[in-house]
């Protein structure tokens, strides 16, 4: 009898250990198959290779530009030195920075007020107003390029200094995106916080910029980053509404690069300039990638 009892007690820890090991194996989950990592690696290489090839060309000069070598035979920074000696390119960098910053600030200021009204106020047709705002983003830029060109020529905004004549057309596409992102964020903020501020004596505007705006900072950052990227990269309207180096932004200025001869395509300097204007955007996206994802997915899941 005692032997049986002893045997039963001896088996109990083994069973407990087996159950613990089983739970450990279950919590660990299945291992990722090797072929899935191979697919991920192939996708990463596919996405990054064009940017690498751009850098590769920017480091080549002379006859090497016509070769398809995977690595530049004699890497050189001559193309980068050439673009920074070009006064038109440096002026275009300044114009792009001014236009992008002004467009971003205006989109955030105007968009925050519009988004707050759509998220908080109750009135008929609110859904259709938001749908109309979003539908504007589906318009192709070429559809408004000709009418804006004629209008800007008549009122004197064509080829405006520092490219500031580009700001209103850019807002046509940037503002709806900012409104959509901010509406999602404002809806997630509890209304009780604003009501508590009103009870404490704050005005509606004070409750907006002291309570709502700080809580919606991730959404503002997301909308600002996406707006800045759009304004920095836009090409069609920049080419259509500017005609002089003093007003062109970087994408338009690169299109007017010339080679040493009339029929030479300046691949080296174009590639170098493209790398230079891409680096700030890449760094910005890498630094704020979590905020961008949070802004685009806000309101998608309700818990």
How much strand content do the residues show?
under 5%
CATH class type of the largest domain: Mainly Alpha
Report the major sheet. Answer: none
Shape descriptor: globular
Number of helices: 14
pLDDT averaged residue by residue: 83
Q: What structural class should be given to the helix and strand makeup? A: mainly alpha
Q: What's the helical proportion of residues?
A: over 70%
Query: Could you say what the CATH architecture of the largest domain is?
Result: Orthogonal Bundle
Query: Could you give the distance between the termini?
Result: 57 Å
Multimerization status: single chain
In CATH, the topology of the largest domain is named MetI-like fold
Low-confidence blocks of residues = 1-13
Task: State the total count of DSSP E strands.
Answer: 0
How many domains, in number, for the residues?
A: 2
| CATH homologous superfamily designation of the largest domain | MetI-like
